[in-house]
Each structure stands twice: as C-alpha cells, then as structure tokens.
Amino acid sequence: MAVTNRWAIRDVATASFFDQVTKKLKARLDTLKQSGLENTSDTVYTQGGSGNPKVVGFSGNRAAKFTLQDAHFTNEIIAMMLGTEVVTAATPVTVDNVLTVTGGTVTLEHTPAATGALISVNKYLPDGTIGKSFEFKSATPATGEYSVTGKTLTFATGDVTNGEKVIVYYKTMAGAETKQIKAQTDKFAGSYELVLDVLVRDILTKKDYAAQITIPSAKIEDNWSMAMAPDGDPAVQDIAMEALAVPGSKDLYTMYIFDEADFA
To answer: Which domain holds residue 15?
Structure first.
C-alpha cells in the first residue's frame, strides 16, 4: 500500500534507549511531554567584488540535536545522565525526628543504623528554630550530654523538662529495594542508540502512519537540572542529546515512515 508523502504531526514520541555494545534495552520513556529534533550546520562564504556580496557558500559541521522532556523522573535515565548505575541495596539514610520529652527521655521513631553518637541532637524551640545541642555520652550523661540505648535517648537530670521538644538527626537502615544513584567527579553521561516512535497523519486521507527515527549514537549532554517547588506545574525531566557520527557510516540518523498494516 502507498505510504504518505505529506503529513502532519501532533504527537509526542516514545523513546527507547539501547546499550551500544550489548544492544539491550536500557530505558523506555512513554510519558514524554515534548520531543524535538533540531538540525544545524555552519556555512561560510567567499565574498568579493563591488559591494562585497556573498558568492559561494561552503557548508559543514552538520549536527542533529534531540531534546526530550518527560513528565516523570526515571531512575535509570538519571543514572545515564550522570554516567553511573542504579544500585539496589539496603543502605543507611538520614532521618530527622521532632520528639517530645517525657521523664528526661525521648524515643526515636526508628532504630539507629549503628551504635554510638547520633548525627545531631538539639532542643527544638517553640518558634521552630534550633536550640542548645547535646553531646553523646556512652554511659550516664552529665549536663549537656545524652546517651542512647536502643531507640531511647536519655538526658541529664534537669537538662530537659516534660513537654519540651528535641530534634534528632540520625541514620537508620532503609530496605533492600532502596535505589542509590551517585554523581561522581570522574563519571559523565554516555552515548546510546536511540529509537523514537511517533504517529503522523496523511493530509489527504487523514490516515495515521507510524514514523520512527533511529539514532545509532546519541550522546546525552551532561548539563541538566532538577527543579523542586511546592506550587506551579510538577517538575519535568529534560534530556538533551546530540547525534554522533558512527565509524563506517555518514548517517547521523534515519527517519522511517511506514504502514504497520504492511508488516509481514
């Protein structure tokens, strides 16, 4: 069957990232808000004669940039943008508790990941600011000290009164499914084979056709940001990439338009 020669597009792509060595799928984004392609090149001209007009143009530095914006954040994509891997394992994380003193003690909400001193123990003032700090003492605490037994913190007699609050920072173990993503000084975003799938509509028949762009080597840019705000639209994940040349080929990317009904 004939495939469209002239079409309109009002859709967003589904993006699939593949490892360039193993060819296995690394990540798939099907909740994109935007996907775009920008083609650029540089042109220099010979100029001369009366009025110094441009006479001959020489083009070069062909480039193709792809930009994706996802409505959500994906752990694997963040790791790819940092050049690291997602690690899944139980690990200690920092928590904070605001606790009310009873009988010179407070009880932590969670079990500390290690024995000994906690990260920080302070009075928590009624206006929400931080007051006096306390130092760890393994045995009976003296003035300005605290001890820890299990989840119970004990203060010196007279240091705190019933109803007072303290704020405690400490590490506790998160579960085995905890995700860990590191930004490291010697790691940077890599290159992946990228496939973008989208629908286009024929302007005459109004029939939809599948369009696919394949980029053999898309280098993820290292500069990106993550916005955090309590109002406005939810934060989005922006992913910028540039197509790289592949040895033995002059193709930066290939676009296919086809009718899925023709599949064998």
So the answer is: 7-39+60-86+182-262
Q: 15, 181, 215: which is closest to 83 by C-alpha?
A: 181
* β 145-149/135-136 pair status: parallel
Task: Assess whether 230 and 169 both reside in one domain.
Answer: no
Q: Is 168 exposed, middle or buried (0-12, 13-18, 19+ CB in 10 A)?
A: buried
Separation between Cα atoms, residue 258 and residue 197, nearest integer Å = 11
Cβ contact 232:36 at 8 Å = no
- Give Cβ neighbours of residue 161 (< 8 Å, ≥ 6 apart): 101
Which amino acid would we find at residue 123? K
Query: In terms of Cα–Cα distance, which of 98, 95, 74, 97 is closest to 86?
Result: 74
**C-alpha torsion sign, points 25, 27, 30, 32:** negative
pLDDT digits (tens, 9 = 90+) for 173-221: 999 999 999 999 999 999 999 999 999 999 999 999 999 999 999 999 9
Closest alpha carbon to 35 in 72, 65, 6: 65
**Total domains in the fold of the chain:** 2
Same domain, 70 and 12: yes
> Across the beta sheet with 152-155, what order do the strands follow?
105-107, 152-155, 145-149, 135-136
Same domain, yes or no: 131 and 164:
yes
Residue 9: which pLDDT band, with cuts at 50, 70 and 90? very high
